[in-house]
Structures
1.
Amino acid sequence: MNDGGLMVRSWWRDRIDYDWLVDTLRSHRALGTLQGMLGGAGVVMLVITVVAAMSPSGQNGAVGLVQAGIVAGLAVLWSLRWWLLSWPREVESLIWVAAADLAITANNILVQDRLLGAMGSALLVTTGGYVTIFHGPRYLLLHIGWSLLSILLLSAMLVCGTGHGAGDIGLGVVVVLVSFVVDGFILPLVQFCYWILRRDALSDPLTGLMNRRGMEYYLPRFPRDKGGGMYIATVDLDRFKTINDTYGHSFGDEVLMRTAQRLRASADPDALVVRTGGEEFVIVGHLRDVRDAVGERLRGAIETMPDLPVPVTASVGIALWADTGGDPACCNLLQLSDTAMYEAKRGGGNAVVVAGERVPIRR
């Protein structure tokens, strides 16, 4: 239960990187297809609005027809925007979702047949699906709140009005519960499963650490507001090919898994620990002190791994960024730490080299 609670908290805190997601879809040439589908949804909304305005059960009177005209115009703009322009930035995307939610609710409130209006609340699931994929759990919660408030209002109007469902409290309760199941359970479930799959794609299957793609996703978003600066450490196991050739790949995998555990335990809880490939690892963390001996801590954690038939050591390269009010170029720090690691390896291994220092720290 505690593990489940930790997982849910991680899901809640892990904000979807909208730009990264859009870039990923663009790299797979999927944006054009998605834009075509989203523009088509606007056409469907236009047809629904026009047909409802022409029906005796739909909007009528001056207010209803004006509202229908506004929503129809919004639907046309929605379709043209998705079909003719590039994919929107995150803020614009959220504005369009909010406008669509308002338009759907306005349509449902102003139709003459209250049962039709209550049924129309199902359209809010479509915008909820978009939020589920592109905007994460926090914005999804706002959408769910709006959807439930809308259906509660529509159900009250259904029960208290005239025509279909008038006075039928049971029908009103059923309508609310159906909407609650779809909006309050199904959409968060889909979002949570989507998050799990995305997290799995960003993880190394052997060690459970982030993989290189995960590092590329999280490194630009690594918080740098804790003061003291940050470090990037590149750790490479020494003579790992010999270990594999002598003891077999199963033992090599065991060494990699133990190394991952030791690095995770010796790094700070908020550090990023990554297996970038083979026997190479990267650790990104906050520098508590300019003299922080993080490199030696990581090197020692590997050298002292117990219950192994052969000593395992590592070469460690460190790149430091002291917080001077600027913003570090993470790609440069990563390159510096990688260069420093190779300096340590050329010196014989089992050493730490800090970028900018020419002499390895040997133990």
2.
Amino acid sequence: MSTEVEIKFVVKPEVKPQLAMLLADYVIIEQAIKPLSNTYFDTTTSQFRQFDFGLRTRKSLNFAEQTIKTAGIVRGGLHSRPEYNLPLEGDLPTLADFPAEIWPENTDVAQLQSDLVDLFTTDFERTMWQLKLANNAEIEVVFDFGMARSGEHSYPICEIELELVHGDVDDLFTLAQKITQLGNVRLGNVSKAKRGYQLAGLYTPKIKPLTLKMPKVETESLGDIFLATLTQSYTHWQHHEQFYLETKDINALVEVVSAVELIQQTLKGYTNILPEIELKQTELAWLLAELSAVTQASQLQQVMTDNSQFIRKFPEHKRITKELQDLQASYVDFAAIDTLFNTPRYASLMLSVSKFLSQGLSSVKLDSVNVASFANMRLESSWQSVLDSALSASTLNADDYLALHEKLKQNLLIGRCFSHYYSSEKRDKFRLPWQDILQGIDDLTVLQVLMAVAKQQPDTIAVQIEKVLMRKQRSLLDALEQTRHQALTMQPYWLAD
């Protein structure tokens, strides 16, 4: 058995000569180009996927092997999976050849063998360089270019993989950072196998809300919560980045923004204990600025799909709808987002977070901090900043609510990380009205956009549209005011006994 420790990049074909020039500065102890053909297998009931195993055969010139990759760890883009490689005779894997201890308890290996079916193949040319570093570390770098096929479906393969043969993981990340600067390089979180399952119709990626699963309260430390929050947010980010690139669904970008915001907010909360992590704030702020119009574009899309009856109240509503569509398109340039996700700066940011997560926390500073006290302090400090704004005034107008948005959103984000430490009944009772208010503020933002569109119309039309929008805004403000006054009477859950 061996354990792969590797970093994967999805790249453009033109990166290959640039990669070769970069690697020429290293001591190359081996270099080769060879064709590879992989066939991936599972049972008719997808038993290997249920085990979280990968089963494949690989053939090349005068070479054939069978491989099982067992469940491993993918943390922040660093893949670590135990794998078993054995010689292959014929075309089908022979499961009985593999060590008995790898199988889950009560596995009927003979039955698995009889149920095997091939799912998809990957045929590609692999260019390999084995490097020796000055500190005697060794890294294998491969450039794969080819195609994956399942029935009539196919997708192109163009990837770089870095595998640590010998040395420290830091050596792997140092080389990976240099590769990010080539451009047209994106950190990959989806293996060839997973994309093959998608190709075969056995896996369908979906947009999903960001949820956090935390360790048990009885055993966790503040470090556990910190890493769990960042790791799950980062996974969510990568999943929806890939989903967006495949579908151009604006809602996937919304989830990317949600994950980056939670990472940013989490890092901010820990800078007093771990001041060294503050270095990443600049890059996260840059990325959120690049994606700042995503939420508005998504909100406009929702207005046009879910509130078409409301827009029909406008005079010349068809023309207004067309203008809204043009406005939405101006918010998010799909080509520009594609370019962003392939820039060196973006790749470097992703890899920096990946490195941080893969290393874990060597510092004991977090483990010495009481979780409940820290959570109470973070929530109270954030909440006080909300109260210090206009929140407690007797009456708020639309501008007042819009000014509250970021502070209120930050408080709710902090609460997500520590929600399992509090009574769910008291927590949800306090949070739900504020979540409703946050949604109402988002609706006010959309009304402001619509108002700006109305002002661009001829005067007679603008007046009619503004009347409709003002009625909508008054109704929304009445609901917000009622909810706010009721919510202000409730004791924050982190102060409850």
